[in-house]
Amino acid sequence: MSGPDQPFLSAATDLLGPRGLTTDPELMAPWLTDWRGRYTGQACALASPANTAEVAAIAALCARHGVAIVPQGGNSGMSGGATPDGSGRALLLSLRRLNTIGAIDTAARQVTCGAGVVLQTLHEAAENVGLRFPLTLGGKGSATVGGLISTNAGGSQVLRHGSMRAQVLGLEAVLADGTTWSALTPLKKDNRGFDLKQIFIGSEGTLGIVTAATLKLEPAVAQRTVVWAGLASIQHARRLLLMVELALGDALEGFEVLPQNCLAAVLANVAGARAPLTEPHAWHALIELVSSDPAADLQGLAEHMLADALSGGVIEDATIAASEAQADAFWTLRESISGALRAKGTAVQHDISVPVAQMADFVTAAIPAVELAWPGCRAFAFGHLGDGNVHFHVTAPPGAVRGEWEQAQGKAVSRMVHDLVTQWNGSISAEHGIGQMKRDELARLGDPVALDLLGRVKQALDPQGLLNPGKLLAPRGGNA
User: Fold this and answer.
1) How far apart are the C-alpha atoms of 23 and 29, rounded to whole Å?
2) How far is it, in rounded angstroms, from Cα 476 to Cα 346?
3) Whole-angstrom Cα distance, residue 42 to residue 28?
4) Helical ranges in 379-429 per DSSP H
C-alpha cells in the first residue's frame, strides 16, 4: 500500500518546519522499533510538534487527508503500543518536544507540565522544591508523562498512591479532528457531567493525543525504612502484608515479593549483588516504609512489627537496611529480576493481576499448572503483591531457539496464563497496557459488553479510525 501523497507531506512540512517533520530514514529508525525489540514498523514521516497548537494543526491535517497517527512518548512501552504497522502510511507523532514544566504550586502541591516531560526530570523538579511525584518505575529515565497517562502506568508505589490515573488532576488532549479539549485547572468538586479526563487515561492514544497534564505532588520523604524478609511461602508473605498494613498504615509505600529462584538468578547475573539474608528462603518480601514527619520512629515501629512476625512464625528472618545505599541495593535486586531472567534464555512475560486477597493462592496454583502443561518450562512470579499485580515469566525449555519458540509454543503458553488469570477474575494487563501485543487476547477474553462499550466510545471520538490504529481494540468485525 502506498503512503500519503506529496501534498500531505508538503503541507505537514509547512506546518511544522524542518525541525518538526522529517522523512529521513536514519532519523526515524530508532523510533520505529519498540523498546523490547518485538515490533518494527514503518511511517510516512516523523512529526515532532513543539506545542499543543502544532499538535492540533497536524491532527487536523491528518484528518483531512485520512492519515493515521501513532502518538509516541519515550518509546519505552512494554506492549508495542507506540509502534506503527508495516504499511508506511501512518504518521509517527513524537510528543518529546512538549517538555515544559510549569511553575510548581507548593501550597496546592501540584504542577502542570507537557506530555513530553521525562519522569526522572519531573522527579528532580519536585525534589528541588521539597516535594515529590509519587510514581516511579524502572524506565523513569525515558518514560514521559504523556506515555504514563496513556497507559495508566503503575510502578512500585501504587499500593499507597495509586496508578497514574490517581495522580492526574487535570488534562489537555487533542482529538482526532484537531479539536483541543483542555481541562487543566483542577476542581475538588465538579458535577458538570462525565469526568472526561478519565476516558483518555489508559486509552493508549486511541481516543485523543494527551498534550499536557496537571499532576498531584506529595510532601518529600523525611524518613525511609526498607526491610527485607525471608518467608516460607507466598501465603506467609500475604500474612506479613496484612500485619504491616495494620501496624504501619499509611507509612507502607511498597510491598514486593520474589521467590528464591528469582533472587538466585539476580545474584548469578548482577556483578556485586549480595543476598540480604545469610540463608536462602522459599520467598522474600521487600518492604518500603516512608514518612514526611521527621519525628516519626519508622525503624522502631518496623522492628516491633518484625519481632511479632518472627515470634508468630510469619517470617523466618529479616533485616532492615542500615543506610540509604543498602536500601537502594535491596531495590536493585528487585529491579534486576527481569534482566536476570532474560539472561537465562528465551521467555514470555506476563503482566497480570488478580484480586489482592487471592494472589498468593493464584501463584501457588498457576506455577505448577504451567510447568506441568509445558515440560521443560519454568515459571516465575514476582512483583507488587500489595496491589495484586505480579509479573509472571515463563522461560523456554533448554535448547529453544529465541524468536521461534515465542511465536509457536510461547503464544500457547501465554494463552494458558491468560486463561488462568481470567478464571481467577483477574486482568491480563495490570500496568503495561494492551498495545498490539495483547489486543487479540483482550478481544478473546474480554467481557463482550465492555468491549462493545469501548468500541462505541472509539467510534464516537475517532470515526475515521485514525488514532493509533491496531492498538488496544480489534477493528470492528474481527481481528486485523
Assistant:
1) 10
2) 34
3) 9
4) 404-405, 411-423
| CATH topology for the 345-423 domain | Alpha-Beta Plaits (3.30.70)
CATH 3.10.50.40 fits 223-337, yes or no: no
Kindly state the average pLDDT of the residues 173-194.
Answer: 94
Segment 238-294, tens digit of pLDDT: 999 999 999 998 899 999 999 999 999 999 999 999 999 999 999 999 999 999 999
The Cα 256–Cα 334 span in angstroms is 8
Q: What are phi and psi of 411, to 5 degrees?
A: -65, -35
Domain ranges of the chain: 110-219, 223-337, 345-423
Please state the φ and ψ torsions of residue 409, each to the nearest 5 degrees.
-60, -35
Q: Tens of pLDDT along 90-113?
A: 999 999 999 999 999 999 999 999
d(CA 206, CA 203): 6
What is the DSSP secondary-structure string of 330-378? HHHHHHTHHHHHHHT--EEEEEEE--GGGHHHHHHHHHHHHHHHSTT-E
Report yes or no: 82 and 34 within 8 Å, Cβ to Cβ: yes
Contact 96, 48 (CB under 8 A): yes
Cβ atoms within 10 A of the Cβ of 166, count? 14
Residues in the chain: 480
The domain 110-219 is placed in CATH, from the list 3.30.360.10, 3.20.20.150, 3.30.420.40, 3.30.465.10, at 3.30.465.10
CB–CB of 228/280 below 8 Å?
Answer: no
Helix (H) or strand (E) holding 51: none
418 vs 401: CA distance, rounded Å: 23
